[in-house]
Amino acid sequence: MKVNQKSLAIVSSILLAGAALSGCAGGNNATSGTSQQKGSEGGSGAAGGDKIVIALVGPLSGSASDYGDSAKAGAEYALKLKQKELQDLGLNVELKPLDDQAEPKQGVVNAQMAINDNDVVAVVGHVTTGSSLSAVTAYEKAGLVMVSPSTTGPEFTEGGKKVAHRICARDDEQGRKAAIYAKNTLNVKNAMVIHDKQAYGQGLANEVKKQFEKDGVSVLGFEGLTAGEKDYSAVVNQVLAKKPEMVYFGGYYAEAGILIKQLREKGFTGVFMGADGLDSAEMFTIAGPAAEGIVFTSTVGDVKATEEGKKWIQEFEGSTGKKLGIFTSFGYDAMAVAINGIEEAAKANGNKKPTRAQVFEAIHKTQDFKGQFVHVSFDDKGDNKNAQVFIYTYAGGSKKFEGEAK
Question: What range(s) does the Leucine-binding protein domain occupy (predicted)?
């Protein structure tokens, strides 16, 4: 579908959004109240200008808060650095963080909060796949563009959802490259694949299983566990009985830490591998020494690999008082893409506050945008044509960058 046709559809959606969606957040006032803006340090723009708001939606509390907090910190820093330039253009841009706790239902509530705020013209997020998938239909109806730093589930940009954009790689690519790395570099001949029964984790596990089977790696089992539990002895016993060379886990660090600890305590000596859901400073707190040797893929490269990156970290930490987290860099670049879209839309609108449709149009057209950490060129689906996948291991109490996964 061509751009002008998409614009007509989205403008129509905006006109209908209030009537079609006004009741979606009703009857949940207590939950919504806890998900309101949480400590925005992004700052406000020039006094007197029409307010423009960018919502950021991610887990700012709960077991996945590392992801939301780090993306939020990066987004706030990006806005802080651009604020003077935006003010000079007469643009009063603010950040509105919303906490979805990585819960799909709360993601829908937060989406409705963003949609109902007429000043919100773009969303950075959602941060997690499950929340993004639950909310994207509402955003599509409202014509409110999304730029996710970290939603990797392929379904996010499939099915004709034009507002959905991401700067990171997809899980069909991440899973495929993880399986190839396991076979070709780690010399794995058989594996057991485990997942957390959630959109992100099970989707990744499916892709790994598919590539293993294509490459002749024997899949000895494909099992799900329940996120949030503390005893995974049932699946641990299955692993011990089947004696795989590798366990691949699709899910997040909270469950992965418990699983690998219990596996090692029971005598499993094989490789343990996962994806960016395992990237957290909390992994060693949860798993202890059992975290050593874990291999994982990530859609985020090593910021410390270059002198420029080291300088950026120093400036970021000095300015914000916060440490670099897993999605700080991609939160920063996703915000930069959103800000660039708003700037371009405002200029095309006579330096006036742009509409949601105009911001969507500008962001969707993004090509060869040189972010600090990733170059962004969106294809027609909203995927970044320049996205990459990388390999890390946990060693010596911290993560070690191994390079790009080919």
Answer: 52-394
